[in-house]
Amino acid sequence: MWFWWFMIICDLVIPILMIFTGRMMWKHTPKNINGIIGYRTRRSMKNMDTWKFAHHFCGKLWYKIGWIMFVLSIILHLSFYGHSTKVIGIFGVVISTIQVIILIVPIFLTECVLKKNFTN
Questions:
Q1: Quick one: which of 71, 72, 73, 43 has its CA closest to 57?
Q2: Cα angle, residue 106 at apex, residues 30 and 116 outer, rounded to 5°
Q3: Which residues of the chain have pLDDT under 70?
Q4: CB neighbours (10 Å) of residue 75?
Q5: DSSP assignments along the chain, one per residue
Q6: Is-contact 4 77, C-beta < 8 A?
């Protein structure tokens, strides 16, 4: 049972970080374009319009997706309560891998939308 608790906590780290980071990016965009804090890609750092748009768009996506992943992770882990540590461990690795992939997808979506909306 302790391993189940350990795995659910590990599998909730990425959704919680996405919720927190997404909210910060969406609601509190860094005031100046910088290379240290924020959504930093060549396209997003071209000017203040792209900087603000990228933070708003990606932050909103991460926030919403983070909540969805948070709820789904809890529901899925509840269905594995009482299974062997091997099954829970494999399930936890699969969930974490899927979460990392989902974490990266909004970056590509943001870059596509930036390319579409800003021609410079």
A1: 43
A2: 85
A3: 120
A4: 9
A5: -HHHHHHHHHHHHHHHHHHHHHHHHHHS--SS--SSSS---TTTTSSHHHHHHHHHHHHHHHHHHHHHHHHHHHHHHHHTTTS-HHHHHHHHHHHHHHHHHHHHHHHHHHHHHHHHH---
A6: yes
